[in-house]
């Protein structure tokens, strides 16, 4: 994956008429995917997102029904996701990446419309790959037939495997953490586990929200509770060797919601928690791990335009 300039889209301030500008960004993404011979026809998510955004701009309205509001939210998010991914593509096509992106572009805008979540799992994987690209860690897809991580990144002379999981519920999140640790341990290089817990904390059900607490506050409460459980699971696992190759754990969740009846039409953002695991690789590469954690946080900052605070200690 390459490294290109990026436009940060401030979603809460994106007016209906300004959705036309986001639709224009979709055209840039379509052009970039076209250079890689990745189909973006009328049945692709990108085309559907563009069509929805242009309708919003033309009508100067996000929508009048719950379904229209959900579709608009999904179109905004997917358009931005594929746009930032497209900014990281190199001039030369990489077949393994192209094939997966082709899968990610298939299907409906919303997971609520399908039982097949594979395309959305791939999208989550490559969205975080974009974070890695903008962090300066130069992610690469490993060329191997054996068990392999989603990406490799480099810090100094060391190679690190990055495994990304997107659990669907709080109960499956701990299993996903354990599975990622097993995969990385089998691969043999120092490992970084990334958990996208967006669905596990119920972000989908908050797209349309009405309540005394803000959706952001509710998301933060759910996120903090599950993230704490996951970080504690590393130290409390029944197999003490399970995480012996894991050096960094990253947990995040993304959200977008319409506040019904509120003063502010929409809110969006992400919640992020990361820490270096000091016992990983016998504690011999903590300095490298710390620099990777910092770089990943800076990648999030470049995509979001917001400053992040890092957890510097494990406990």
Question: What key phrases describe this protein's structure?
Answer:
315 residues, alpha/beta, 6-stranded mixed sheet, 8 helices, 6 strands, disordered N terminus
Fold and architecture overview:
This protein has 315 residues and is an alpha/beta fold. It has two domains: 10-115, no CATH class; 117-315, no CATH class. The protein is built from eight helices and six strands, in the order αααααββαββαββα. Strands 1, 2, 3, 4, 5 and 6 form a six-stranded mixed β-sheet that branches. Helix 7 links the parallel strand 4 and strand 5 (246-259). The chain is globular and about 60 Å long.
SSE order and pairing:
Elements: H1 19-35, H2 45-59, H3 66-86, H4 95-104, H5 118-135, E1 151-155, E2 158-165, H6 170-187, E3 191-196, E4 208-209, H7 215-236, E5 246-259, E6 266-276, H8 286-304
Parallel strand pairs: 2-3, 3-5, 4-5
Antiparallel strand pairs: 1-2, 5-6
Helix pairs in contact: 1-2, 1-3, 2-3, 3-5, 4-5, 5-8, 6-7
